[in-house]
Amino acid sequence: MRSYFGYKGRLAAASMLGLLVMTAGCAWQREAYPPVPDADRGASVQEGYVYHIAPGDQVNIFVWGLEELSSTVPVRPDGMLSTPLVENIQASGKTPSELAREVEKGLAPFVRYPIVTVIVNGFVGLPTQQIRVLGEAVKPAAVPFQKDMSLVDLMIAVGGLTDYAAGNKSVLVRYQEGKRVHYSVKLDDLIRDGRLEEDVSLLPGDVIIIPEAWL
């Protein structure tokens, strides 16, 4: 009996030691990520951003002088849409101006010098233009990117941090020049302590990972 409990005790101690080592390793790995560079923290990093139409968007196509050809249509899951006289136009991935020119080309055989304006309603955003929040957010989600969006805006959108979040161990994953780069972000300092100097401007495709605190 004594040897049995001795074996269980040694097993429990070994498991606890392994857990501590793994925890320390994870903590070290997270702390090893550098902060976001100053040049990439401000709104200027978002210069040149243009919205691209996505499946699920509602698109208002207005043909000047021809109300009967104007319509509001959804972009289908395959990225296509159809309008009066023009069927199966590729819309997903195009800017509103690019789509307007495509509709004009499609109408040209039927209408002399068509002039088209495209307005997007009910934005969804392409997956590459969404920001994903994983882990200990109140409502983890994929949030459509908006110009001038920062960590503060994103945390409002996902309801903030849970009680179990290790906010200062959070990681921002960003794709730069085709490579995945990791940065450390301090969400506890930003949200719970109000240190706005920890706010960071976001980019389409960013991923925020919020780990659980080890109790």
What secondary-structure arrangement, pairings included, does this model have?
Blueprint: H1 2-31, E1 58-63, E2 71-74, E3 80-83, E4 86-90, H2 96-107, E5 116-121, E6 130-135, E7 142-144, H3 151-157, E8 170-176, E9 179-185, H4 187-192, E10 207-210
Parallel strand pairs: 6-10
Antiparallel strand pairs: 1-2, 1-5, 3-4, 6-7, 8-9, 8-10
Protein described:
26% of the residues lie in helices and 24% in strands. By secondary structure, the protein is an alpha+beta fold. The chain starts with a helix and ends in a 5-residue tail after the last strand. The chain folds into 2 domains: 106 residues, Roll (Outer membrane lipoprotein wza fold like), CATH 3.10.560; 64 residues, wza like domain (wza like fold, 2-Layer Sandwich), CATH 3.30.1950.10. A 5-stranded mixed β-sheet has the order 7-6-10-8-9, with no helix packed on it. Strands 2-1-5 form a 3-stranded antiparallel β-sheet, with helices on one face. Strands 3-4 form a two-stranded antiparallel sheet. The chain has 4 helices and 10 strands. The N terminus is likely disordered. The protein is elongated, with a radius of gyration of 25 Å. InterPro entries: PEP-CTERM_polysacc_export, Poly_export, Poly_export_N, SLBB_dom. Keywords: Cell outer membrane, Ion transport, Lipoprotein, Membrane, Palmitate, Polysaccharide transport, Porin, Signal, Sugar transport, Transmembrane, Transmembrane beta strand, Transport.
